[in-house]
Structure formats: structure tokens, C-alpha cells
Amino acid sequence: MVISLLLYKKGKTDFVRKVVLALVTEAEKRYGNGTGDLKYNHVVERIYEVLPWILRVLYSKEQLDKMIEDAVEYLKRYLAEGKDLVGHEG
Q: DSSP labels for 35-88?
């Protein structure tokens, strides 16, 4: 059973990362610059709303925090390239 859960978790990591990135992007669009704590709280709240319960159980808060940090860094690099949140060159 434990091995099955670990394999399931491993197979869903990319999915969870994509969900987190989408939520970070959503928060950035909604709240804009200078609202880091507000955006973080929004993302965490939404993660627990949209992820299936099994994934919420399998990923620790620390793992989700790391995914949020990674998504924020990715989004910063993306926007620094002159792109906007719709994906067009600015």
C-alpha cells in the first residue's frame, strides 16, 4: 500500500507543480506587486480547494511551500523576459 501511494505521488508531482504555477499566476494577476503575503495565502487556500484530498495528504506543507517558491521564481524569470501573464511579448 505504501509503495503504491509513493508511486502515485511520484506520478502526480508534475500535475501538482502545474496547478501551483497556475495558482501563483492567478494570484499575481489578482493582487499584483508588493502583496507577497496576500498572494501566498491565496495560493495556499486555493491549493486546498482544488487538489484532490489524496494529493493534499501526500504532499507536506514544506513540499507545497517549495513548489510555491519554485513557481514564484519561474514567474519572475518569465516576466523578466518581457512577457506578460497572457504569454505575449511586452
A: -HHHHHHHHHHHHHHHS-HHHHHHS-HHHHHHHHHHHHHHHHHHHHTTB-TTS-
